[in-house]
Amino acid sequence: MAQDFSLASTPDGIVPALLAHLNSLDINTMLGFYDPEGVIIDHAGKEHRGQEAIGAELKKYFSLGLQMSITQRHMFVTGDTALLILDWSYIGTAKDGTEVNMVATATDIARRGSDGFWRYLIDNPFGSQNRETVDTSPPLNQSISSWKWYSICVGLYLTAVLYGLDTSIAADVQGPFLESLGEIEKLSWVGIGFSMGSVATILLLGSLYGSFEIKSLYLASIILFEVGSAVCGAAPSMNAMIVGRVVAGVGGAGKYLGCLHYIAVFTNLKERALYNALVDLCWGTGYILGPVVGGAFASSSATWRWSFYINLVLAAVTAPIYILWFPRHNPQPAVPAKTKLAAVDWVGAVLMRREKLQLEVAAG
């Protein structure tokens, strides 16, 4: 049965006619849907007038080889002019094999001609959205199998839980600390040492994540966190415990920033908010459970030391996920490592750590 590419004679027929013309994937057919004075607006906000320019812009969409889906949100008609607000999407595998997830809301204007048929006068596919923040590229996680992406998310959220857990885990084990290690005058440093390590290095770590390969930084942060946990668990003195807490704090901040960077790189704007919210939820859950877990270990035969050793066990169990399945991404692949290191504000990073230490001493 031949496809009907007739124009609409009533406002209600505009959207069905538009969808039929678009999904013909034929530029000449689609050009017949535009008013002689028609204009199409591209992703950057630039106007394209005339059939040749409009055709060149349409080719970018038709070359995907995908069928568009359209849902009419609103239509306002006055006289011979209609304003249409349409949600549209291209989702699927393009002709070249790439995964496409293009979703937006169009603000279009159609006009009825002297022949009584409606044609597009202004085709504005991205509507009033901020042209700098519209994300029409497919998220990189679409190149990863669903089960592997699920495993990666488990790894990301587990690190967020452990970061929150270690932030507060010392709150309910201070008594056992003192019994084993003594030096009550240094007890406050066990609590603030972790946050001090995190806050003093978080700006530096954020800068490094913006320049260097994120998997290497993420794994290094996990290792640093586990080293700090091991030092805390085996601490023979309060000084060793404090050092371990600071080291774990640095690694914890690196892990947390790694979670956020992985989500920023491997998801698009539409889904990113949910993934980020889950990171915060996991951190908050860990923070709430910290005193509970610490107290449970401290009052058991395992002793308070397993409040920290448990991190090593969990890291060992999930290590294959981090090592084998976590994808690599270099935000600046063409820039030499030497140049990246030279661009880091090392003086500012040192001053930041010094300032944080002074504030902690003053507060203590």
SSE blueprint and pairings:
Blueprint: H1 14-22, H2 27-31, E1 34-41, E2 47-49, H3 51-62, E3 69-78, E4 81-93, E5 99-112, E6 118-123, H4 146-168, H5 174-181, H6 187-209, H7 214-233, H8 238-266, H9 269-298, H10 306-325, H11 337-343, H12 346-363
Helix pairs in contact: 4-8, 4-9, 4-10, 6-8, 6-12, 7-8, 7-10, 8-9
Number of helices: 12
CATH top level of the largest domain is: Mainly Alpha
- Domain module tally: 2
State the oligomer: single chain
**Strand numbers in spatial order across the main sheet:** 2-1-6-5-4-3
CATH superfamily of the largest domain: MFS general substrate transporter like domains
Radius of gyration: 29 Å
Percent of residues in helices comes to: 55-70%
- Helix-strand pattern: HHEEHEEEEHHHHHHHHH
Q: Distance between termini?
A: 82 Å
* CATH architecture descriptor of the largest domain: Up-down Bundle
Strand content: 5-15%
The CATH topology annotation of the largest domain reads as Growth Hormone, Chain: A
Task: Please state the average pLDDT score.
Answer: 84
Query: Biggest sheet, in brief?
Result: 6 strands, mixed
Structural class: alpha+beta
Spans with pLDDT under 50 lasting ≥5 residues?
131-138, 358-363
Count of beta strands: 6
C-alpha geometry? elongated
GO molecular function: transmembrane transporter activity
InterPro entries: MFS, MFS_dom, MFS_trans_sf, NTF2-like_dom_sf, SnoaL-like
Membrane topology: Multi-pass membrane protein
GO cellular component, one term: plasma membrane
